Amino acid sequence: MTALAPLLARFLGEHLPRDQRASPHTCDAYAYSFQLLVTFAARQLRKPPSQLDVEDIGVPMILSFLDHIEQDRGNTARSRNARLAAIRSFFRFLEYRVPVCLDQSLRIRAIPMKKTDEALVASLTRAEIQALIDAPNPRIISGVRDRAMLHLAFSAGLRVSELVGLRLDQLDLRSPCTIHVIGKGVSAAAATGLDLS
Q1: CATH of the domain spanning 4-109, picked from 2.80.10, 1.20.1510, 1.10.3470, 1.10.150
Q2: Which of 91, 134, 149, 152 is the most exposed place for a label (fewest CB within 10 A)?
């Protein structure tokens, strides 16, 4: 049997933030997914979470967990898919470190995502973007701040986590103004002519 705790600690504490350069938000979301899974598995198997083995988290356990979070916790299919993505990522991590779990990993990674009916907005028109940028009140300080943040997010194509995580050392005020962002593990520079008038 292979102890789950040390491998899960390495995955969440080292692999995601250091090797995958996952954002703090992603790391927190994955950690919460595993908190739910480990709590569920420990309850089902009637053993303390610290005594769970990787082999305890097989396809039947995961399918039962996914049903539980949808039916008992009222999670949407989108949340279910996010939990499954975290689990798949962990088992992909195990493939390279615990060869005895290869077959288990392949079976878990074959669990399908659930189709969702919710349509995402593919893109916004210029008029829609301008309406969003114009929404904050420019006569108050928080409105100026919000307008600047929206403009920068759209101009540079930033995710919210990248926007709120910007530091002064990532900003170059020489013309043209440039910000340097690392998103999803890829370094990028975005130039923007910020005009808030």
Answers
A1: 1.10.150
A2: 134
